[in-house]
Amino acid sequence: MVGSVFLCAALLLLLAAGAAIPPPEEAARMARFVLHNCDWGALATLSAQEGLRGRPFANIFSLSDGPPGPFSGSGVPYLYLTDMEISVQDLEINSNASLTVSLAQTPYCKKHGYDPQNPLCAHIIFCGSIVKVNDSEAGLAKKALFSRHPEMESWPKDHNWFFAKFNITNIWVLDYFGGLKIVTPEDYFSVKP
């Protein structure tokens, strides 16, 4: 009995430690942490719309890099898209985009009294492109997205939804005073979240 209580307590401590925010000197881990703890992000495209052509255009999208919980994120931002959406129409012309996610959408910043613009309220800026996932990755994308956004399963089928991912080429981390930190995709994907 005492052994099982000790094991449960140790497991809870391990899970709590895994959910703790990484220190500022671990920028790659911070990027993975912030993405995994965010359910949506601001996606900026170059508009292809009449009257806005070539201008930046930002829109909010639900996303997920894996089911909730520590150590379950892949680091890949998955999205569920339809060609009917204005930003997706932009991406059909130019797939390049940037994606910003911020701990401001979690309880963390409010709990610590950090304004969303305060560097201690960490945010990550990804640059890259949006690509449709292939059939072998679709199951992973579906599990990642539908585990966090169950409503998606009931969205209208006639909208021709498809799974996509943000193909990361550049990463900037702002999580402390002193400016942005650059993280390579190789460092980002090699670190344990």
TrEMBL record:
The source organism is Chordeiles acutipennis
**Signal sequence annotation:** 1-20
Q: What is this protein called?
A: CREG1 protein
This protein's record includes keyword Signal: yes
Q: Where is the CREG-like beta-barrel domain?
A: 22-189
InterPro entries reported in the protein's UniProt record: CREG (IPR014631), CREG_beta-barrel (IPR055343), Split_barrel_FMN-bd (IPR012349)
Compartments annotated for it: namely: Secreted
PANTHER family recorded: CREG1 PROTEIN, PROTEIN CREG1
Q: GO CC terms for this protein?
A: cytoplasm; endomembrane system; extracellular space
Which UniProt keyword terms apply here? Glycoprotein, Secreted, Signal
